[in-house]
């Protein structure tokens, strides 16, 4: 899983049936200093995340599992809202 | 999932049976400022996308699910046509 | 899926049983201007591709599906021979 | 699988049910000279790893297998604590 | 699949049960000029590979298939020992 920030939404009327009813959230991966790090992707929300929130996201089969849409075209999902990040470095 | 732009097509007469009947669309991944970002790939179309359209694409098992060809050699599929991208940044 | 060029072969006598009988083709990924782009990989041939041919290759479960070796150690396969690439760019 | 170092933890009260009960460890991939190499990720612990320990981590379905949570949203897991790394180079 | 070189081993007493009995080989990916290319990873050996040998390795479900440990936490495996690499370039 990775840390990300919800930075926007995508609207698509013509889409695969399995995406209907799922909020398509643009999620920007972050490093653990909360800096943008990597390419943003579209993740379906499964925990009620809002714009600007720090989230945990997962990809692949794990994302379909989180969305409880096992045979869907989903391959990224938001699965947690971060309360706290504690990093110890040497 | 990711945002992409359909920039072309590939024709291959000699191909795996499971690709027969699927339109092979060259899809260029974009960032959320709609700039080219990353390597183009071949995705099968599942929503009637045309050249130049802004689309949502998915990869892996999710792509086979979208194409309803679960045992196929497909590993990327177009699953939505973008109406709107709303990005909020700090 | 991606576009690639067959640039060589690998011979391995001691190998996993599931690879026996499959031609191991060194496949160089290309961009859509047919330039080398990315790391070459070993793909099993499923459509009779020859050295120097422009091919379509796929990865992961899709590759095992194409080879009809569902429980094998294959994770890349050539699944088409390119006739034509048409790219429209703005 | 890869070598990593546990450098922190993430706390998320609102999260996917399948993550409940799993320690979310921030794991920094290392190269084999134990230098930081690549993006840190969140892995669930399955072997009792502590902060600062050198670990083996795995990703994808392998991670769900290690956590014995086959239908979960887990896609990275710590699966070993390194005793020794022996590297021979020409 | 990819070409790699076995450059070392990892020892971990405390590890996931499914890794018990598997030799954990540090495998350095190579390009087809046999130069180091990419991040080394830990692959389980399935063909009796030794230190310094040129090998074929695979990742993901393919690796669990090769190791015949389908529900394990393995996600990389050595599946062949290279006899010969023939590369034709224009």
Second CATH tier, the architecture of chain A: Beta Barrel
Multimerization status: homopentamer
Radius of gyration of chain A using CA atoms only: 13 Å
Summarize the biggest pleated sheet of chain A: 5 strands, mixed, barrel
The number of helical segments of chain A is 1
Main-sheet strand order of chain A equals 1-2-3-5-4
- On the 0 to 100 scale, the average pLDDT of chain A is 96
| CATH-level-4 superfamily name of chain A | EutN/Ccml
Distance between the termini of chain A: 23 Å
Amount of beta strand of chain A: 35-45%
Shape of chain A: globular
InterPro entries (chains A, B, C, D, E): EutN_CcmL (IPR004992), EutN_CcmL_sf (IPR036677)
Protein name (chains A, B, C, D, E): Ethanolamine utilization protein EutN
Pfam family, one (chains A, B, C, D, E): EutN_CcmL
Keywords (chains A, B, C, D, E): Bacterial microcompartment, Carboxysome
């Amino acid at each position: 899983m990775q840390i990300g920030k919800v930075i926007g939404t995508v609207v698509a009327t013509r889409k695969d049936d399995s995406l209907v009813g799922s909020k398509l959230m643009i999620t920007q991966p972050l490093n653990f200093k909360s800096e943008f790090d990597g390419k943003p992707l579209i993740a379906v929300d499964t925990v009620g995340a809002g714009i600007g929130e720090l989230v945990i996201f997962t990809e692949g089969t794990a994302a379909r599992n989180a969305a409880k849409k096992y045979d869907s075209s989903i391959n990224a999902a938001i699965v947690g809202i971060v309360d706290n990040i504690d990093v110890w470095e040497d």
